[in-house]
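ok so I'm stuck.
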Amino acid sequence: MVKLTARRLLAYWLDMTLTACLLIGAQLLLYTMFSGFPFDYLDRGYEIELWVLATFSMPVWMYFIWSELSLRKTIGKQLLGLKVISEKGPRLTFLQVLVRTFIKLLPWELTHLIILVPEPWWGADEPANVLWIYLPNAMMILYIAVLLSGRGVKGLHDYPARTGVVHDAKARRRMERGERRGSM
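replied:
not stuck anymore, here's the structure
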């Protein structure tokens, strides 16, 4: 129960760290190759938010949607021997994965909006909406509480999507075989 919860949280952290490293690396490469274009020309909060949506949020959304729809697992879940299952049958539907992803990434997207719109916090003398930043943080605490109460199988995003996350028996058997070989 707690073990599954910890695995899910670690898998999410791995996925977000992996995508962040890749996407930040790509952004730095773009910045270097094009002498700061378009970054140096994005001044307004909504411009930066649109750039973040196009070059960061959408690739992360596509990663989660494609991975869970086609493979039933992300790289983080694969590494930790987990997979997404559907209450409706053997396959996940596009709608299930879309709902899961929307709810899962909602705190992340709200954080972008709060910090960037109407004016980026780093460019303002007194940032607007400062107290709103507590909302996505409170949501994350709620998400973890629901995950704990769902015994690690169901997070908040799993209930409306009618999905869950379980140990992948095939992955577990492969890991155990590898451990036995390594311990000889």
